[in-house]
Amino acid sequence: MNTRFAVAVHILTFLESQAGAPATSELIASSVNTNPTLIRRLLSQLAKAGLTTSQMGSGGGALLARPASSITLLDVWRAMDAAQEVFAMHEAPNPMCPVGRNIKRTLGLRIARVRSAIDAELAKTTIAAMASDVSLNAEERLTALPLTRPSR
To answer: pTM for this structure?
Structure first.
């Protein structure tokens, strides 16, 4: 299964967590636990979609191209061409068979409804919300840790 969408969301959420400081592909890769080359490839796709930009020179790196509150998961989904991969139709069913002759249209209608539902759901969540949720989850984990008292 392709993980480009999930990694792209991770990258953008990470960039939001950097509070405007540029992040190198090596730094992002350390968070994703992957190769910086993959990160650079995905950053290139995200830049083409207008979601990231790069700051060159010493101290440079990737940045969000616009506020995280205006980047939805649907934007990321589209940038990664993930919608094209969810459902693929087989190319040439037998036109002499009643099922083969009608399956593309019949299944296509249902797939179109599923894609619309996916788009609608992804449009509800922004990268800012993702970063907030990640931050809250980290805080909850910290507050859930038992307090230890120093031994005397």
So the answer is: 0.81
Write out the E strands in the chain: 52-55, 61-64
> Please, what sign has the CA dihedral across residues 138, 139, 140, 144?
positive
Neighbours of 123 (CB within 10 A): 13
Phi-psi label, residue 126: left if phi above 0, alpha if psi -120 to 50, beta otherwise: beta
Contacts (Cβ under 8 Å, ≥6 apart) of 12: 46, 51, 52, 64, 68, 71, 76, 127, 130
Question: Cα 32 from chain centroid?
Answer: 12
CB count within 10 Å of CB 70 equals 13
Confirm if 79 and 69 have CB atoms less than 8 A apart: no
Tell me how far apart the alpha carbons of residues 121 and 138 are, in angstroms, rounded to a whole number.
Answer: 25
DSSP 97: S
- Contact between 43 and 25 (Cβ < 8 Å): yes
Per-residue tokens: 29: 């890769």
Q: Which tens digits make up the pLDDT trace of 78-128?
A: 999 866 667 778 889 999 999 999 999 999 999 999 989 999 999 999 999
Name the residue type at position 6: A
